[in-house]
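== Folding the chain ==

***
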Amino acid sequence: MTSALYKSGIRNDLDFGIGPKTNQISSKILKRLPMVPIPKKPGIGRLKVLELIYSGHLSIHDFSVNLNDFREYKTFALVRNPYAWLVSIFTFVNKVKNHPYRAMNPDRFLTFENFIKYQCEKPSSQLGYIRDSTGCLGDVKTFKLETISKSLPKLSTLIGAEISARFEKKNFSSNKHYSEFYSKKLKAMVEKAYKLDLNKLEYEFNDNK
C-alpha cells in the first residue's frame, strides 16, 4: 500500500513498518509516550514492551491525541482475514534472518501452535488500531486486503489521488493457503480469541486448499 501511494504522487512522512527509513510521525509520537522499563531477561514481558517500538504501528487514537490537525487528514485502514493475518506474522518473522521478535522470544515462533497460543492469550485486535478512545471507528474507512484491487477507485476518490489498478503484492512470506496451517484446535482458539474482529470485519475461515 505504501508503494502504491508513493506511485500515486503521495509521498511524505508516512513510511510505516520496519525498515531503514525513519517514520517521522511515529517517532514524534513515541517520544511523547510514557517511558516503560524494558526487562533485561528475554521473554513475553520484554517482547510486549518492544513490539510497539519495533513495529512502527500506531493506533488511530495515538495519532488523534498527538496531532493537532489530525481531523484534517483523510483516514483509512487496510484490514485482512485474522486467520491469514496470524499466518502472515508467523511466517514473515521466521523468514527474516535475525528478526528481533524471534530473538527475544524463540519459543513463541518455534511452532505455529506455540505462536497461536501466545497470540490468543492477549489478542492484538486489528480493530484496536482503528477505534478511537470511545471505541468507535469514527471516520476511518476500512478496505479489505483480499479485495483491494476492486476497491481502488473508492480509495482513490477518498484520498484525492489515482492509485494504479495494477496493485502489486509484496513481502510474500508463504505460498500456502492459510487454512493449511490450522488444526481444528487452533482454528477454534482463533475463532474465540478474535471473535470481535471476525464479526465486525465480516470474516470467516475458508478452506481453500
Notes: The radius of gyration is 18 Å. The beta strands are 76-79, 141-144.
